[in-house]
Amino acid sequence: HGMNASGRSPRKLSMEEIRKRGFSEMPKFGWLPVNVPGVPKAWATLINDFGNLTLKEVLAPAIRAASEGFAITPVTAKYWQAAYSNYSREAENFEEIKPWLDIFGTVSAGEIKTLPHHAETLRDIAETDGKSV
Which of 16, 61, 79, 127 is 20 to 30 A from 23 in CA distance terms? Predict the structure, then answer.
């Protein structure tokens, strides 16, 4: 068995549209390079085909961690800070990055982080068996 769950490009995205927005190639940041997420539906499909638990049961620990908080490990803190630094440099060119900076913010190793909006999203994915929109 195999599955490609990388998602697909938005229907109306073309090189013409990318050029119209002032880019000669696909930008690294912003909404243009984002594809339609295929992973949540893949989770549901794999669980339904091969699992013993429901998607709701599988996502429960992640929902709880996002709601109640989880400790930031030193390795996670390092990469999180690197991402924050990279995105901060690009925020003036890509307005859509600013909410990411607000939501994730900066972190330190050992800090307890909550992501309530992520908990809501995971809860919705679990409730709809990966069909959330």
Answer: 79
Q: How many CB atoms lie within 10 A of CB 100?
A: 16
> SS3 for 42?
helix
Q: Please answer whether residues 109 and 72 qualify as being in contact, where contact means their C-beta atoms are separated by less than 8 angstroms.
A: yes
CA dist 126 and 115 (Å) reads: 16
Long-range pairs of 55-60 with CB within 8 A, sequence gap ≥ 24: 55/125, 55/126, 55/129, 55/130, 56/126, 56/127, 58/126, 59/122, 59/123, 59/125, 59/126, 60/126
Taking a C-beta distance cutoff of 8 angstroms, is the pair 97, 104 a contact?
A: no
pTM of the model: 0.79
Beta bridge partners of 71: 112
